Amino acid sequence: MKVTILGSGTSSGVPRIDNDWGACDPGDPRNRRTRASILVQSDTTTILVDSGPDMRAQLLAADVSAIDAVIWTHDHADHCHGIDDLRQLFHIRGTPVPGYARAETLRLLEKRFAYVFQGRDGYPPTTDAQVLAEDMVIGDIRVRSVDMPHGNIFSTGMRFEQSVSSIGYATDFNVVTPDMLTLFEGVDIWIADALRKAPHPTHPHLAMTLEAAARIGAHRTVLTHMDQTMDYAALAAELPLGVEPGHDGLMIDLP
């Protein structure tokens, strides 16, 4: 099993429009961040997590043209507003792309993007909506999920398991619950939101994520969903052993 960080940035990306790099060194390509998304793959199964507005460019960069499923963490724009690009994946497959989310997220997506799930004006649906169960198998990858508080909504955290390997993914949360700690306990890799160093009302700040990583006991923690205050090199120099910043295009192979 392997995981690719397609996008490691927050909702505005880095740099922000107006070429705003903040504290990030524009000369370091690892600071150029698209909206948060990952790809989890085994030899036979490819799962995309979220379809943000940068999805087309991300899949082109990763040289991926076929997926077995997409899972949405929640319905915020930076995680779903590239959904129309599933149309090309539908054309490649010849059948609608299976799309999974928790029931409330799915309801909101179907309301906002009805044509994607139902078709319109003679165009067929491109995505087959299915409720994401707390424990299910997609291809040969086991997917377990947990609801994570994200302001006044919930985002979905996931644990992917195949053979002896495990990957945890937790983005867009502002409280670390006991159920989250249980789900992610002991994962080989924990990819986790660390928006910035200063506290934020709906996202974890760096200290919160580091504390959770220590409690989870992940073998390796990779930070994602970072804003323009989080310079890659400066952050990497101060993080504890076993924790590192992620970057767009980072691919990690597991046994």
UniProtKB/TrEMBL annotation:
Superkingdom, natural source: Bacteria
EC number(s) given by UniProt: 3.1.4.55
Start and end residues of each Metallo-beta-lactamase domain: 34-225
Enzyme class per UniProt: hydrolase
Pfam families according to UniProt: Lactamase_B_2 (PF12706)
One GO MF term attached to the UniProt entry: phosphoribosyl 1,2-cyclic phosphate phosphodiesterase activity
UniProt entry keywords in alphabetical sequence: Hydrolase
Record SUPFAM superfamilies: Metallo-hydrolase/oxidoreductase
PANTHER family: HYDROLASE C777.06C-RELATED (PTHR42663:SF6), HYDROLASE C777.06C-RELATED-RELATED (PTHR42663)
Record-given protein name: Phosphoribosyl 1,2-cyclic phosphate phosphodiesterase
Protein species of origin: Sphingomonas vulcanisoli
